[in-house]
Write a structure and sequence with these properties.
Radius of gyration: 14 Å
Shape: elongated
Distance between the termini: 26 Å
Number of helices: 2
Structural class: alpha+beta
CATH class: Alpha Beta
Largest sheet: 4 strands, mixed
CATH architecture: Roll
Length: 75
């Protein structure tokens, strides 16, 4: 169920996840998610959330002003 609109209609799709860290931006594209078909709120599974944490931590070590990472290649 959606935490925003409380509807239970979700679609499986992909999204872009963005993090700002110490004035730099980390962009992870093609991240699998569920999206509320009513309001567009995005939800990540526990497995995807864990992989996102690993990818972000790795990106922090090689920080550039902007890092763009393809989830399907990094996960």
């Amino acid at each position: 169920m959606c935490n925003i609109c409380f509807d239970d209609k979700r679609i499986n799709t992909k999204t872009t996840f963005t993090v700002e860290y110490n004035g730099c931006i980390i962009v992870i594209k093609n991240v699998p998610c569920s999206e509320c078909s009513i309001c567009g709120e995005v939800f990540f599974s526990d497995e995807v959330s864990a992989k996102l944490e690993v990818i972000v931590e790795a990106a922090k070590k090689i920080m550039q002003e902007v890092s763009v990472i393809d989830y399907s290649k990094a996960a």
